[in-house]
Amino acid sequence: MSRPDPNAPYRERIIAAKRLLKAQIPDLAERFALLTASVEAQIDVIEAERARGQASVPEIRYADLDAIDDATRALIRQRGCVIVRGVFDAERVGRWNRELEDYLTRNRYIEKSVAKRGIDQYFSALASARPQIYGIYWSAPQMQARQSEELAHTRRWLNRLWDVDQDGTPVFDPDQETTYADRVRQREPGDASLGLSPHVDGGSIERWIDPGYRQVYRHVYGGDLARYDPFSAAWRTATEEIPSPAVCRMFRTFQGWTALTSQGSGDGTLNLVPVANAMGWMLLRALQDDVADDDLCGARAGRAMAVSEQHHALLLRGYVPIPKVEPGDTVWWHPDVLHGVEDRHTGAGYSNVMYIGSAPDCAKNRAFLALQRPAFEAGKSSPDFAAEDYEIDFEGRFTPDQLSALGRRQMGYAD
Questions:
Q1: Are 151 and 356 in contact (CB under 8 A)?
Q2: Is 190 inside a domain boundary?
Q3: What is the pTM of this model?
Q4: How many angstroms separate the CA atoms of 75 and 384, rounded?
Q5: 3 within a domain of the structure (yes/no)
Q6: Residues 299-332: tens digit of each pLDDT
């Protein structure tokens, strides 16, 4: 039996949106050619770096955050990603890793998850869609990391890579973070259960049909293409995502994770296309004549936005592994950056991470906190994810009374 087409309820909106966008972009061919040239030049550099054995993802040290030069900042903004090394010390991270394993084991997570298999369909449109990601949100290590001063400092620095202004008013407060509860990955050596194909989170068909998203990409869809800046915050908090388990309703300046173990190429871990303006190219790619009127290069409502050889071969030339990271390093990528997880883990050790992004204070994120707090208090799954609710009766779950003052602010509790 074939699955229902998730785009069926939106088919007429997709057709109408494509008709509207094509009508308002009389220079579509020239505009697409300009973006193609920009992206291809960046891909050429990435391919050359890979041939030399050089990493394409910028790397900085946590201890140096307050002294990073403008050239490095510009490179991070161009690549849309960065590794911040040494955010946490190895001893602390090792303890978190052991505590997470104990939390899962003594609460019999694996046994309980078998009965709920198939609830989360977010990655079902991807060719590879079974990473070893665990639906827990409220363990002590996760919450301790989220409310740590180290991550608060790191995320303040990352937020300030953005232009926060919209018509003279800040879109978000770069110095105040909100907590977005995400999951953990524990991938064992030899795992071949498939990873995640290249994709983009936080909106798929919305990027064409939602008025807020069309404003985000207004310089791509018309006007001065040179003004398109992936790090402009204008309109980013005015988007409306199609409700679905695991579609992020918060605005994140960066997606990210904290490494709990050593991992790099071949260890079943992250790959990226480090080109921040690639999304603009993807948007115009779907408006080309070889794509059907009701198609957006395979994008599906309520699913991760897939990247395919058929439509996006240019971008996939720049799909590269992250350099090896050590426990306590953090990895960050812009919400428009294409990314995925290797299908096979051919390394010798576990590839473990805690997913913790950067979600600064703004009205959109405060609205989500009002939904997230009751879930936290009850031990239910984060409201952005499938309602598996494993932790309701988990021993050792982190509770509100354990929050620090910073943690309370980040969760939106009034003091």
A1: yes
A2: yes
A3: 0.95
A4: 32
A5: no
A6: 999 988 989 999 999 999 999 999 999 999 999 9
